[in-house]
Design brief:
single chain; about 130 residues; mainly beta
Length: about 130
């Protein structure tokens, strides 16, 4: 199988002391199934609101490089990405879309080895949250 258009999500949860639990949600919308696809990536978490426009570049092995294009106007947490930076690479395996981090890094040390994005919708679910 391959990665198909739709909305994908990855969440990180850090348990703190008492009321200091922290959750980050990475939600990505892939517009097309193949070729180069526009991508919208939102990262919401503790003191974090990242809104990114990127391009998904599909390779011959169906992996996708998520390449930074620009910050969306509503972005509130610039992370210093430059146009052309590969944020992460997506690969499909055993029903999960695995992310190999590149320029973008997760918030939790335990997820630096990779992340599992789960497809939550075949459509653009970003506007519903």
């Amino acid at each position: 199988m391959k990665i198909t258009k739709g909305t994908y999500e990855f969440g990180e949860f850090a348990q703190g002391n008492r009321d200091s639990n922290q959750t980050w949600v990475y939600r990505m919308y892939l517009k097309n199934d193949n070729g180069e696809s526009p991508i919208t990536l939102n990262v919401d978490g503790f003191q974090t609101i990242v809104r990114i426009y990127a391009t998904g570049v599909v390779s011959s092995d169906n992996s996708i490089d998520v390449v930074f294009d620009s910050y969306a106007p509503e972005n509130m947490t610039p992370l210093g990405f430059k146009k052309g930076d590969i944020l992460f690479t997506l690969n499909y395996s055993n029903g999960l879309t695995n992310a190999e981090w590149k320029t973008m890094q997760p918030n939790l040390e335990e997820n630096k080895g990779g992340a599992k994005f789960v497809k939550i919708s075949d459509s653009d679910a970003l506007n519903k949250f």
